[in-house]
Write a structure and sequence with these properties.
Blueprint: E1 2-3, H1 7-10, E2 15-16, H2 61-72, E3 81-83, H3 84-104, H4 111-123, H5 126-132, H6 138-145, H7 150-162, E4 165-166, E5 169-175, E6 183-189, H8 198-201, H9 208-226, H10 231-250, H11 255-258, E7 267-269, H12 270-276, H13 282-288, E8 295-298, H14 301-313, H15 316-331, H16 337-352, H17 360-384, H18 387-409, H19 416-427, E9 430-434, H20 452-468, E10 490-492, E11 497-501, H21 516-532, H22 554-572, H23 588-611, E12 619-620, E13 623-624, H24 625-636, E14 639-641, H25 643-652, H26 658-664, H27 670-676
Parallel strand pairs: 6-8, 9-11
Antiparallel strand pairs: 1-4, 2-10, 3-14, 5-6, 7-8, 10-11, 12-13
Helix pairs in contact: 2-24, 3-4, 3-17, 4-17, 4-20, 6-15, 7-13, 9-10, 9-16, 10-15, 17-20, 18-19, 18-21, 18-23, 21-23, 21-24, 24-26
């Protein structure tokens, strides 16, 4: 049982630039990261001194640009990955820490300052949290003990969702795939603790999944014992939890299957939903959550059919074990160290290879972000985001839009009929830069300095009610799906919008003082990447208005899929750790966006050079400007991973590992060959049917 976040991200339709589940840690960009440091790293921009003269860009651009840096900057002990994104995230966290500490130290704080100050101060009161032990969740455990019948369990699940918590599945408000101007409810598969269904149903390479399952059972048993359950009972309940989740896994879709928008949306009327799920009447669920609706998306019907069966044929004691275990793990970050440390030991150390817990201030800051991230973002923007950065970004976005328009107009494989629709979508793009134009209200959320879990639970209930109030209402197009302090960017096909939070507008992505090559190879490629998500294998199924609607002729779609199939093969052929291959189909959307986005950024960069009367051959620090464009692209993708983290990402992350993103798109570009005088046969020169050209 967890505190639930925005469903937008769980729907897998908001295509972000990079996986955001890797926390950041301090380090030294020049001489290696410290084992566990709170030091703020310097800005992570490209430096010519990082280039490795023993490598060749035409053989492997990533090695040439990043190998020396990666060797000098191993993953810190309290991290599972370390690179450009993490370094900027560390800077964002340091800035946020300053803000929350100032708010916590102000006894007269009010409004959003009081909110973030209460959350942070209560979370940092470690002595009180340790003294409380299991007491804060004892009423929750006692409530689970009362469940005896399927009706009891159904009622309990309704209560938990209304409280902003949830188990078994996810539920939230999002734009209707078929009418993107209005919000509806979405019920979405969930309930698993391990990364995806294969971890339950397969032994995995070298038996790793089997070993992880055994470690998970041991973890659950320890957490149950932490809550006061005798060892023998805890072991049996832990085995029951694994069996319960394994049954859910069999009914779940895989990450690749979930990328298909057809598997993310299945609208049913309320009458139909109640008929399909008599053991869990959805009309009662909506009523308990204060929502009136005629229908909603029961997004994965087979999963919910199995859930309906499990309510009656899984014994109440096994349901109790599952709900108990998920509640404890969900609350663990707000509880005493024995709960938090045990959760870390399995989910971070065993599963992802993180060797050391993050400092407490970072963990509490995560709690502030999860509970009131936009409130903190309002303080962040006020303090740290200069207006001139937003103005320069707006100009860059316009340049990239024009470059994309030119490419769409001159595609040789698309018919005029489909091109007209593609241009309509281009014309309706909405860019959002830095921070929202309108901030949400936190009126009515009561918090205090003395009860961390109570504050988080109050925020969860408040945020859930805020989300539920959107169902049946028009979409608020001013809302953001990320906070300004997030180092990332995204495209939302339901709004046909591209969004760039303030925190990503720093080197290596963006530097107002840098030469155009670096900015176009960094943030320019990011802008292009997000725009191209509107035309990737998923986004291309949504029209100019954000509706899930086919705007392609059959012949054009066939030609598009033939080209994307070559990109699938390109990434399928990349071999990562332990001989494991990248999953080209899982990463297809991001790879399309990288390839199209880098080409569009190159076009915009070349126009900027022409307007300035330059050719791109001018030398800076011993390299041409054109080469520096690709250098900064590779710099963006410098990233080390722990082996366990990399294995998990290969199974679950729609982004290919960073080293392959650095080389994947450039190896298909004539511009790259010419910039480095590469020759046929060089590894970075794809030719013939192997070369991929889409947008």
């Amino acid at each position: 049982m967890t505190i639930r976040r925005s469903l937008l991200l769980s729907l897998a339709i908001s295509a972000a630039l990079a996986a955001a589940n890797a926390p950041a840690v301090g380090g030294n960009a020049g001489g290696g990261a410290s084992a566990n440091s709170d030091a703020v790293p310097p800005l992570a921009g490209f430096r010519s001194s990082d280039l490795d003269p023993s490598k060749n860009a035409c053989n492997n651009l990533a090695d040439y640009v990043n190998s020396r840096w990666l060797a000098a900057n191993p993953v810190p002990s309290d991290k599972t990955s370390w690179g450009s994104f993490e370094m900027l995230d560390e800077r964002s966290q340091a800035a946020s820490r300053h803000l929350v500490e100032a708010a916590a130290a102000n006894p007269n704080a009010s409004g959003i300052e009081k909110l973030v100050g209460d959350l942070y101060a209560s979370g940092m009161n470690e002595a009180a949290i340790e003294a409380a032990g299991v007491t804060p969740i004892r009423p929750m455990l006692d409530r689970i003990d009362t469940l005896k019948t399927p009706a009891d369990i159904a009622a309990y699940l309704r209560e938990e969702f209304a409280a902003g918590r949830g188990a078994v599945f996810a539920f939230g408000a999002e734009a209707d795939f078929k009418d993107s101007s209005h919000k509806i409810g979405y019920a979405y598969q969930g309930g698993l603790s391990l990364p995806e269904k294969a971890y339950y149903l397969e032994d995995g390479p070298d038996g790793k999944y089997k070993a992880i399952r055994a470690a998970y059972v041991a973890h659950v048993a320890r957490q149950l014992q932490n809550a006061g359950i005798p060892a023998a009972d805890a072991q049996q309940q832990a085995s029951d939890v694994l069996a319960f989740e394994t049954r859910l896994a069999r009914a779940s879709l895989s990450p690749i299957e979930l990328r298909d928008p057809n598997n993310q949306y299945h609208f049913v009327s309320m009458v139909e939903a109640d008929r399909l799920s008599p053991n869990f009447p959805w009309s009662a669920f909506f009523s308990a959550n204060g929502v009136q609706a005629d229908g909603f998306s029961l997004s994965q019907p087979a999963f919910f059919a199995e859930f309906n069966k499990m309510l009656v044929d899984v014994p109440a004691a096994q349901w109790q074990a599952y709900l108990r275990a998920h509640m404890i793990d969900g609350m663990a970050p707000m509880l005493s160290s024995k709960f938090a440390d045990e959760r870390f030991a399995f989910f971070a150390r065993t599963l992802r290879g993180q060797q050391q817990q993050k400092p407490r201030w970072k963990r509490v800051l995560d709690g502030v972000e999860g509970s009131a991230g936009e409130a903190l973002g309002q303080l962040y923007v006020r303090e740290y985001f200069p207006a001139e950065s937003k103005a320069q970004m707006e100009a860059l976005v316009q340049n990239l839009r024009l470059a994309l328009k030119a490419r769409l107009e001159h595609l040789d494989w698309m018919s005029p009929e489909t091109r007209t629709k593609a241009m309509e979508k281009w014309a309706s793009f909405t860019p959002k830069i830095g921070y929202p134009d309108h901030w949400r209200s936190w009126d009515g959320l009561a918090t205090s300095r003395g009860d961390y879990l109570g504050n988080v639970l109050a925020a969860a209930r408040f945020n859930h009610a805020w989300d539920m109030a959107k169902i049946g209402k028009p979409v608020d197009r001013s809302e953001w799906g990320m906070t300004p302090q997030t180092v990332n960017a995204y495209y939302n096909p339901l709004m046909n919008e591209i969004v760039f939070p303030a925190a990503i507008l720093q080197p290596p992505f963006f530097d107002p003082k840098a030469d155009p090559a670096l900015n176009y190879g960094g943030i320019g490629a990011v802008i292009g990447h997000e725009m191209m998500h509107g035309y990737d294998d998923q986004g291309s199924q949504f029209d100019a208005h954000g509706n899930f609607n086919n705007w392609w002729t059959p012949g054009d779609r066939e030609r598009f899929e033939a080209r994307t199939a070559r990109l699938v093969k390109q990434f399928d052929d990349y071999v990562s750790i332990d001989g494991l291959h990248v999953k080209g189909q899982l990463t297809l959307g991001e790879n399309i966006a990288d390839l199209g986005g880098l080409n569009v950024a190159w076009d915009a960069y070349q126009k900027a050079l022409r307007d300035a009367g330059r050719s791109g051959d001018e030398m800076i620090d011993g390299h041409s400007e054109n080469q520096r464009f690709f250098f900064n692209w590779a710099t963006v993708w410098r990233r080390n991973f722990t082996p366990d983290e990399l294995r998990v990402r290969l199974n679950t992350d729609p982004h290919a590992p960073a080293n392959f993103r650095a080389i994947g798109a450039p190896s298909n570009m004539t511009a790259f060959e010419q910039a480095f005088s590469c020759k046929p046969g060089d590894a970075m020169v794809r030719s013939g049917d192997a070369r991929v050209v889409i947008w």
